[in-house]
């Protein structure tokens, strides 16, 4: 009886933690030079970026599972009614077919935006993206390409997604020359980076943190704008520790930076990498040369996660400046769990403890 009661209380506790957000969203402020703004959440800013693309480019197409209906996350809502079913349309539930169609459309001269409903199911399209799209320009000696191609895919933890709706697959694609891989942290970045992907002459993968679709709200510029791919953003300046993350995890380390400043008077420089491929080595290296310490945090499993590449590069670039070993706080090397999601995620407390160890090294 006692065992049953204890187990029940444990499960209630786990359920309560699981349904609580593991981060606090930190709003961004747009560059005043971009003009007037309006309040948008993440899916609205993505919708706005695609609306602008369809309006400016008569060759632009948007397609994927349920896209014509507005998408399961509402990112394409209203676009089929506005631009017609020949430009915004549904596809069969077949990711390799969606990717292959996108490549063919781009080769034929269209600006193709292909939606992969969940990033976890981008793997059936892996061959098309890695062996076809990424290599198309190179294998022809730049005689032809499929550069006007953007793959949109949801990404990351959502609080209840478990094994097949929570993964962060960016590292798989970071090993592929010919692609660009981008992950925004909020609505302002999402609109500018998605427009940047569409305008880029290379095939791009645009991962969208699905937990932010409605929870992330910014004042987003109304007019069209692009943000540069391959450029990180220093979100908070500091002098003692450099912290690097992307997507949802950026908001976790942003909170940790405030916590350690209050508790230990430690000044953290927070960097949003934004682009995984190519990534901004210069910005990160300059920061670590100043601080002497680097913490990298991402939701994906730690082994062979993209944090490994950052750590290896910065160890080489900043070896003589390092005051402590480079630290990675990441997901564990297990499939993404359901009930145990709070313990899997690289929480603010894991990052907090890592900073304590670094400054006392």
UniProtKB/TrEMBL annotation:
Its EC number is 1.2.4.4. Keywords: Mitochondrion, Oxidoreductase, Transit peptide. It comes from the Eukaryota. The keyword Transit peptide applies. It comes from Strongyloides stercoralis. This is 2-oxoisovalerate dehydrogenase subunit beta, mitochondrial. GO terms for molecular function: branched-chain 2-oxo acid dehydrogenase activity. Residues 40-215 form the Transketolase-like pyrimidine-binding domain. InterPro entries: THDP-binding, Transketo_C/PFOR_II, Transketolase-like_Pyr-bd, Transketolase_C. It is found in: Mitochondrion matrix. SMART domains: Transket_pyr. CDD domains: TPP_PYR_E1-PDHc-beta_like. GO terms for cellular component: mitochondrial matrix. GO terms for biological process: branched-chain amino acid catabolic process; response to nutrient. Heterotetramer of 2 alpha/BCKDHA and 2 beta chains/BCKDHB that forms the branched-chain alpha-keto acid decarboxylase (E1) component of the BCKD complex. The branched-chain alpha-ketoacid dehydrogenase is a large complex composed of three major building blocks E1, E2 and E3. It is organized around E2, a 24-meric cubic core composed of DBT, to which are associated 6 to 12 copies of E1, and approximately 6 copies of the dehydrogenase E3, a DLD dimer. Its cofactor is thiamine diphosphate. It catalyses: N(6)-[(R)-lipoyl]-L-lysyl-[protein] + 3-methyl-2-oxobutanoate + H(+) = N(6)-[(R)-S(8)-2-methylpropanoyldihydrolipoyl]-L-lysyl-[protein] + CO2. It is an enzyme of class 1 (oxidoreductase). Together with BCKDHA forms the heterotetrameric E1 subunit of the mitochondrial branched-chain alpha-ketoacid dehydrogenase (BCKD) complex. The BCKD complex catalyzes the multi-step oxidative decarboxylation of alpha-ketoacids derived from the branched-chain amino-acids valine, leucine and isoleucine producing CO2 and acyl-CoA which is subsequently utilized to produce energy. The E1 subunit catalyzes the first step with the decarboxylation of the alpha-ketoacid forming an enzyme-product intermediate. SUPFAM superfamilies: Thiamin diphosphate-binding fold (THDP-binding) (SSF52518), TK C-terminal domain-like (SSF52922).
């Amino acid at each position: 009886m006692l065992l049953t009661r204890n187990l029940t209380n444990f499960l209630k506790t786990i359920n309560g933690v699981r349904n609580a957000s593991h981060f606090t969203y930190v709003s961004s402020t747009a560059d005043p030079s971009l003009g007037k703004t309006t309040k948008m959440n993440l899916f609205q800013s993505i919708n706005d970026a695609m609306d602008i693309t369809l309006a400016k480019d008569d060759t632009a197409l948007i397609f994927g599972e349920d896209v014509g209906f507005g998408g399961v996350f509402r990112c394409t809502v209203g676009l089929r009614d506005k631009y017609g079913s020949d430009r915004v349309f549904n596809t069969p539930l077949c990711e390799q077919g969606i990717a292959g169609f996108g490549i063919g459309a781009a080769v034929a001269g269209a600006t193709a935006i292909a939606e992969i409903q969940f990033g976890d199911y981008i793997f059936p399209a892996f061959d098309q993206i890695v062996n076809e799209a990424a290599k198309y320009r190179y294998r022809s000696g730049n005689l032809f390409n499929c550069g006007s191609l953007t793959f949109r895919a949801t990404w990351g933890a959502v609080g209840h997604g478990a094994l097949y709706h929570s993964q962060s697959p960016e590292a798989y694609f970071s090993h592929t020359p010919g692609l660009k891989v981008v992950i925004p942290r909020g609505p302002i970045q999402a609109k500018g980076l998605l427009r940047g992907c569409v305008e880029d002459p290379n095939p791009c993968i645009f991962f969208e943190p699905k937990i932010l679709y409605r929870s992330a709200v910014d004042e987003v510029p109304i007019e069209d704008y692009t943000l540069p791919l391959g450029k990180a953003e220093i979100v908070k300046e500091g002098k003692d520790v450099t912290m690097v993350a992307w997507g949802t995890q950026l908001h976790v380390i942003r909170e940790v930076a405030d916590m350690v400043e209050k508790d230990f008077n430690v000044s953290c420089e927070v960097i949003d990498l934004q682009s995984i491929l190519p990534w901004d080595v210069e910005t990160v290296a300059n920061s670590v040369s100043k601080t002497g310490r680097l913490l990298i945090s991402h939701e994906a499993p730690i082994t062979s996660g993209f944090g490994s590449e950052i750590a290896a590069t910065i160890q080489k670039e900043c070896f003589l400046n390092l005051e402590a070993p480079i630290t990675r706080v990441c997901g564990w090397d297990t499939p993404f769990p359901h009930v145990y999601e709070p313990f899997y995620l690289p929480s603010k407390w894991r990052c907090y403890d890592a900073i304590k160890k670094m400054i006392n090294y």
